[in-house]
């Protein structure tokens, strides 16, 4: 092997070079995978947006400039599907972040007996195949004899909603279907709660803080990194949401287009209309939106996320 | 883990060494406080039981539906368990069974053979001689007899209709091969990041983490495009090959664990003349087995439950699809389908992930904790 000594850099020892060589050999699978399954496809998608590429190319392949983007700007279905996604996100995101938090507080309570068993039970549905979960919750939400409406009738609501066939109620219906995924977030929050030193609570109690005060001044700040992590992953997830409606009604967007999510519309363009170029344009549109929101969240993190190790 | 410790301290064994505390414990205020604690414990545990029952009630609903036939499932406000009006075959014809009261106070379940205005003729299904019994009274006032009538055959039916053995084999094979690839590739990559210094290591690791937050839509389209051009659509390859090139979650999990193993161990092995590969295999892997189990279970469950990838790559060949895809297409063609069969299939699809989770739940939750809390 020829030894190349780079200028302006301390010549590294032979040992260091061997170490670097081995390190790169070991991470090679990831580098190859990253190039082949992430970077290259992303670049390709980006190039596709300027072409008329299709799965079965009928017209000659050519660059079409910004015409896909022009189509996107004037495509009311695309903007409608973005609206659907955002509407659902506004409802689902706070629930997906706060419900596991509340459950973790409950499971972490020192008054709760048998919390180990409860943890297992609350976590178990997390491993249920997503398709199975959808099919089970669909029967729970059945307007005539689903248990949710049976329960609502028992507590005096005479005409409970037809969850999955109503353009408004379908969103809380979808939130119900997602509730079995609560276990993952709960476990993370629970671990965060266990990591808070009890001395902090003792100090807060001496200062006269009650349960709410301790939650507000000890738990929330110390758990803010976990909340942040859950929030960012939740945003990425909810912006890509489309699999549940795909299984529920084969991606028709029923009822009345209210479940035509942005990602569902992208996949329809791709797999149903086989329009790769336009599908790619919208995929990048979704990617940029996700990136923008994620970066904005990271921007706000400085103000409300507390990292104990910092400074 | 630390869970057990907090439990012990909250149970607060009496402290005899400190006179002050002993005196405080026996005071009336303490008794009142422990009574309040007991009430609180009861209330909170009770509320949690209610919540967990509601949370898991869909499983019960699914199970009861899975052992009913379409008629039993169609009954609005029908009983929870599968019941059907009992009937009895007499001389080649079906007759309804009623609960018939007799003057001596007994009630017998009899099949109504001949309906009359003021008296009817019955036969006792349990009576071998099948002599007709005449009963005085209006048969319309009788309540029909219900028989517990579970449709266990639903499970056998769906087993055949979705070709369960074939789908089970596909799902298992894809999950196991993918798990093998994930463990091998992720362990190597995690070892590289945890133990070797090389230029750009930190930047590359940030890149690994960043891919966790990347929406998959933006990469799936060209991937599908390329896989379809090289003829991989309709084969397992698009599901298996990427598993051999590591993924961010599992690399992160393994790296975090490897970092907790003292370096002195590998240095000792190096002094004994072991190369990097030998050190990994004989020093680190034997100590990292809890996290390797966690990654295996993660990937098995992930692969078992994955829906979209097998849907787009395997749907063209029904013999190659996995259980979730088979189940979805079975329930998708549900116009005249039988909800009992769909629920039976649903439960049969989730048995293995749930059993895996219950066996390995410790490793499973610890794995989630590492990825969730440490970054």
Please explain how this structure is put together:
The complex is a heterodimer of chains A (311) and B (375). With 311 residues, chain A is an all-alpha fold. Chain A is 68% helix and 0% strand. In chain A, helix 3 packs antiparallel against helix 10. Chain A starts with 13 loop residues before the first helix and ends in a 7-residue tail after the last helix. The mean pLDDT of chain A is 88. Chain B is of the alpha+beta class and 375 residues long. Chain B has 16 helices and 8 strands. In chain B, strands 2, 3, 4, 5, 6 and 7 form a 6-stranded antiparallel sheet that branches. A two-stranded antiparallel ribbon of chain B has the order 1-8. In chain B, a hairpin with a 4-residue loop joins strand 4 and strand 5. Chain B is elongated. The N terminus of chain B is likely disordered. At the A-B interface, helix 1, helix 4, helix 5, helix 8 and helix 10 of A face helix 1, helix 3, helix 6, helix 7 and helix 8 of B.
The biggest beta sheet of chain A is recorded as:
none
Number of strands of chain B: 8
Structural class of chain A: mainly alpha
The interface involving the most residues is between: A-B, 94 and 97 residues
Rg value of chain B: 32 Å
Measured as a percent range, the helix fraction of chain A is 55-70%
Q: Strand share of the residues of chain B? A: 5-15%
Query: In one word, what is the shape of chain B?
Result: elongated
* Oligomer category: heterodimer
Span from first to last CA of chain B?
21 Å
**Rg of chain A (C-alpha, Å):** 25 Å
Tally the helices of chain A: what do you get? 13
Strand fraction of chain A equals under 5%
Q: Give the low-pLDDT segments of chain B.
A: 1-24
Structural class call of chain B reads alpha+beta
**Helix and strand string of chain A, N-terminal first?**
HHHHHHHHHHHHH
Q: What does the average pLDDT of chain A come to?
A: 88
**Main beta sheet strand tally, sense and closure of chain B:** 6 strands, antiparallel
First-last Cα distance of chain A: 44 Å
């Amino acid at each position: 092997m020829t030894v190349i000594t780079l200028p302006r850099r301390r010549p590294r020892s032979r040992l260091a070079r061997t170490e670097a060589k081995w390190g790169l050999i070991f991470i090679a699978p990831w580098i190859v995978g990253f190039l082949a399954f992430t970077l290259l496809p992303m670049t390709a998608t980006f190039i596709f947006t300027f072409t008329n590429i299709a799965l079965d190319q009928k017209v000659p392949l050519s660059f079409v400039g910004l015409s896909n983007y022009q189509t996107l700007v004037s495509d009311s279905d695309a903007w409608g599907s973005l609206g659907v996604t955002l509407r659902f996100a506004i409802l689902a995101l706070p629930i997906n972040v706060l419900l596991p938090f509340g459950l973790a507080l409950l499971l972490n309570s020192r008054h709760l007996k048998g919390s180990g068993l409860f943890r297992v039970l609350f976590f178990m549905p997390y491993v249920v195949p997503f398709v199975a979960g959808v099919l089970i919750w669909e029967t729970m939400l059945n307007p005539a004899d689903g248990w949710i409406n049976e329960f609502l009738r028992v507590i005096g609501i005479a005409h409970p909603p037809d969850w999955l066939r109503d353009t408004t109620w379908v969103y809380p219906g979808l939130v119900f279907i997602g509730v079995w995924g609560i276990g993952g977030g709960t476990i993370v929050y629970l671990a965060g709660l266990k990591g808070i030193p009890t001395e902090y609570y003792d100090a807060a109690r001496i200062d006269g803080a009650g349960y709410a005060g301790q939650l507000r001044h000890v738990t929330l700040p110390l758990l803010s990194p976990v909340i942040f992590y859950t929030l960012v992953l939740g945003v990425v997830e909810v912006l890509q949401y489309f699999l549940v409606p795909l299984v529920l009604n084969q991606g028709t967007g029923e009822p009345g287009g209210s479940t035509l999510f942005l990602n569902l519309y992208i996949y329809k363009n791709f797999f149903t209309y086989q329009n790769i170029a336009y599908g790619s344009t919208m995929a990048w549109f979704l990617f940029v939106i996700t990136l923008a929101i994620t970066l904005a969240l990271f921007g706000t993190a400085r103000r409300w996320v507390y990292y104990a190790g910092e400074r | 883990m630390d869970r057990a410790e907090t439990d012990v301290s909250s149970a607060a064994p009496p402290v005899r060494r400190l006179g002050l505390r002993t005196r405080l414990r026996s005071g009336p205020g303490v008794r009142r406080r422990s009574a309040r604690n007991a009430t609180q414990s009861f209330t909170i545990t009770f509320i949690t039981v209610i919540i967990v029952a509601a949370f898991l009630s869909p499983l019960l609903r699914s199970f009861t539906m899975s052992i009913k036939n379409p008629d039993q499932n169609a009954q609005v406000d029908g009983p929870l368990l599968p019941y059907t009006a009992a009937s009895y075959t007499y001389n080649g014809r079906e007759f309804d069974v009623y609960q018939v009261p007799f003057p001596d106070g007994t009630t017998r379940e009899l099949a109504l053979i001949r309906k009359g205005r003021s008296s009817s003729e019955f036969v006792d299904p349990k009576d071998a001689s099948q002599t007709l019994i005449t009963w005085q009274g209006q048969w319309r006032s009788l309540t029909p007899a219900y028989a517990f009538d579970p449709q266990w055959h639903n499970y056998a039916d769906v087993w055949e209709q979705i070709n369960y053995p074939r789908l089970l084999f596909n799902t298992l094979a894809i999950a196991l091969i993918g798990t093998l690839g994930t463990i091998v590739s992720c362990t190597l990559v995690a070892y590289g990041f945890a133990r070797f210094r090389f230029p750009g290591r930190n930047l590359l690791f940030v890149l690994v983490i960043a891919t966790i937050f990347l929406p998959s839509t933006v990469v799936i389209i060209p991937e599908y495009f390329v896989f379809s051009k090289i003829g991989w659509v309709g084969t397992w390859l698009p599901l298996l090959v990427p598993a051999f090139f590591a993924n961010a979650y599992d690399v992160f999990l393994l790296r975090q664990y490897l970092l907790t193993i003292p370096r002195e161990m590998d240095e000792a092995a190096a002094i004994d003349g072991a190369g990097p590969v030998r050190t990994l295999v004989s020093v680190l892997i034997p100590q990292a087995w809890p996290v390797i189990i966690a990654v295996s279970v993660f990937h098995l469950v992930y692969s078992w439950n994955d829906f979209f990838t097998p849907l787009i790559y395997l749907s063209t060949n029904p013999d190659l699809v996995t259980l979730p895809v088979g189940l979805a297409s079975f329930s998708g063609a549900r116009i005249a389908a039988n909800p009992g069969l769909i629920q039976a299939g649903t439960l049969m699809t989730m048995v293995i992930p749930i059993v895996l989770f219950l066996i390995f739940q410790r490793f499973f939750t610890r794995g989630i904790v590492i990825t969730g809390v440490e970054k």
